[in-house]
Amino acid sequence: MVWQLDDDLWFPNPRWGEDDGLVAIGGDLSVERLVLAYSNGFFPWYAYQMEREPHWYCPLDRYVIFPDEIHVSHSMRQLLRQHKYEVTVNQDFDAVIQGCSTVRGRNEEHGAWLGPDIIEAFTRLHQSGYAASVEVWEPSADRLSRRLVGGLYGVTLRNAFFGESMFSLVPNASKLALIHLAKAMENIGGRFIDCQFETKLFHSMGGRHITYDDYMSLLAR
Questions:
Q1: Whole-number pLDDT of residue 100
Q2: Residue 49's pLDDT is what?
Q3: Residue 50 has pLDDT above 90, yes or no
Q4: Which of 17, 21, 48, 207 has the fewest Cβ atoms surrounding its Cβ within 10 A?
């Protein structure tokens, strides 16, 4: 069953949703609704060129990375030791979300989801303190001319980071951002990184499945 949301701030029980995790359609992308959504395991995901209203997903099978379980391969350890790139947090959220949207023509693909409405909504979320970015820079002699070569962004709420998207212009830049995020979260007691869905990349870096009940239990701590 898929529920139609209205102007009130609410979400249905995700156990009533579709097998693919779709639970509701409609509502808006206000800061208040997004905070409520992520607090209950929901996230917006829809093809903005084809759909007029947000689609809200809440899979009962969750894929997460626990910060202390992040897998750093031998090649990534070598790259880290080289200090070839600089990694920062929240220094250029706008550039990161734009990079995630447009890298390799993502925004022109059939089914593209990171469009103007989502970018505007998550920028507001960032300005409200609920979203963050990790940037990977290619250093230069002039700091002002350093080049952004990768990064990721997501929602920061309670004790978790809800990953939304990442991009790389050079090999392994997004992996560097993810490793930096995991180490930073481990240092401050963060519980988990929500990957939303399993991918080869997340699997290779230590991701695993947990139930929605376990997910919410961790989020409530």
A1: 97
A2: 82
A3: no
A4: 48
